[in-house]
Write a structure and sequence with these properties.
single chain, 380 residues, alpha/beta, DNA polymerase, domain 1, TIM Barrel, 2 domains, 14 strands, 18% strand, globular, binds S-adenosyl-L-homocysteine, iron-sulfur, rSAM_sf, 4Fe-4S
Length: 380
């Protein structure tokens, strides 16, 4: 007999097809099962009492519901909560919950490690192992939601999801889209489109593809206002330079009236935080607004750099961060500064590293670099 189907791999459409084609059942049975899984956190078919005995036995035979294993979890003093979730072999990924006035945001990983090698990101130093499956992505939401006692539509503790954990979500397109479908489904976690945000380092063709299949909020990791600097910080820029990236972001925004795009900009001391960078960024953002033909189509989110062992970058001083924001605001560009949360548990942006069985040898190179600096292996 073939392996059992993990129902967490399927979105509503996939689950309906499974019920119809594999089990020979009515499609609406899939809806009942989704509610058991995502609204009541039940993974044992025997407890799904509104399904007949025969169907429960059939499910037992052909299907299973496997959620990621929590290896370790850690609350932060500021209410942030981090989970280390075990994947196959020795791999582990991280998810972080960040509560904030009236909202609760979960930061979700999409890959074990990351292949993009952005210079200022801790995940990059871990190298890359593989894509996460749909079950492993939506499983992060499931684990956090259960921990929080979240009841979709009634007791909302988890109000937002950001695909800003480990990995490049658009490099794992199908699994990420399927998982986001479940996040946004009333029978899943019931989140509105705009409360699910996908953040990308700029995989241009995939941004267009995303626009064809869903309507989530889009964040672009920009980090530099010109190609020379951006290519250094985000090597993917050599393939998809800023002009092409902004064009695709503009196409995404224009599909639906009133859509804005967030541009993330990590501020690193002396690297990209100078007044001329802010002015250049303001010009880019004006150009973007013009392309979309909407004021404030571009929103800038400034992220003070979060350091990690062995990095050559430093956080910009507070006054430079404020000055950068002020320059943007005076140029009438919307700019917010992201407050750092969870840094006492290494859960802040860019600090997630999990445990990656690296296939790219980048980890070995980074360990060597640490050793040369006299920083122990354990820090990696
Ligand atoms: N690969 C995706 C999603 C992961 S990163 C992307 O690039 O958008 C989520 C955000 O954190 C990105 O904007 C990323 O550039 C930023 N980030 C990475 N390392 C950081 C660090 N050390 N300090 C602050 N922000 C960082």
């Amino acid at each position: 007999m073939s392996a059992k189907q993990n129902l967490l791999e399927l979105d509503r459409e996939g689950l309906e097809n499974f019920f119809a084609d594999t089990l020979g059942e009515k499609r609406f049975r899939a809806h009942q099962v989704m509610k058991w899984i995502h609204h009541r956190y039940v993974t044992d078919f025997a407890q799904m009492t509104d399904l007949g005995k025969v169907l429960r036995a059939k499910l037992e035979d052909a299907a299973e519901i496997v959620v990621p294993k929590v290896q370790f979890e850690k609350p932060s003093a500021d209410g942030t909560h981090k989970w280390l979730l075990g994947m196959d072999g020795g791999n582990a990924i991280e998810a972080v919950f960040i509560p904030d006035k009236g909202r609760g945001t979960l930061c979700v990983s999409s890959q074990v490690g990351c292949a993009l090698n952005c210079q200022f990101c801790s995940t990059a130093t871990q190298g890359f192992n593989r894509n996460l499956s749909t079950a492993e992505i939506i499983g992060q939401v499931w684990v956090a939601a259960r921990h929080l006692g979240n009841v979709p539509h009634h007791q909302r503790k988890l109000t937002n999801v950001v695909m800003m954990g480990m990995g490049e979500p658009l490099a794992n397109f199908d699994n990420v889209v399927r998982a986001m479908n479940v996040m946004r489904d009333d029978l899943g976690f019931g989140l509105a489109n705009k409360r699910v945000t996908l953040s990308t380092a700029g995989m241009v063709p995939m941004i267009d593809k995303l626009g064809e299949v869903c309507d989530v909020s889009l964040a672009i990791s920009l980090h530099a206002p010109n190609d020379e600097l951006r290519s250094e910080l985000v090597p993917l820029n050599k393939k998809y330079p800023i002009a092409e990236l902004l064009d695709s972001a503009a196409r995404y925004a224009m599909r639906k009236k009133g859509t804005s795009i967030t541009f993330e900009y990590t501020l690193m001391k002396g690297v990209n935080d100078q007044p001329q960078h802010a002015k250049q960024l303001a010009r880019l953002m004006h150009k973007f607004d013009n392309a979309v033909q909407m004021k404030d189509a571009a929103k800038v989110n400034l992220i003070p750099f979060n350091p990690f062992p062995g990095t050559r970058f430093e956080r910009s001083p507070e006054e430079d961060i404020r000055a950068f924001q002020k320059t943007l605001q005076e140029a009438r560009v919307l700019a917010t500064v992201r407050r750092t949360r969870g840094d006492d548990i290494d859960a802040a942006c860019g600090q997630l590293k999990g445990q990656v069985l690296d296939r790219t040898r980048r980890q070995a190179a980074f360990r060597k670099h640490l050793a040369e600096q006299g920083i122990g292996d354990a820090a990696a």
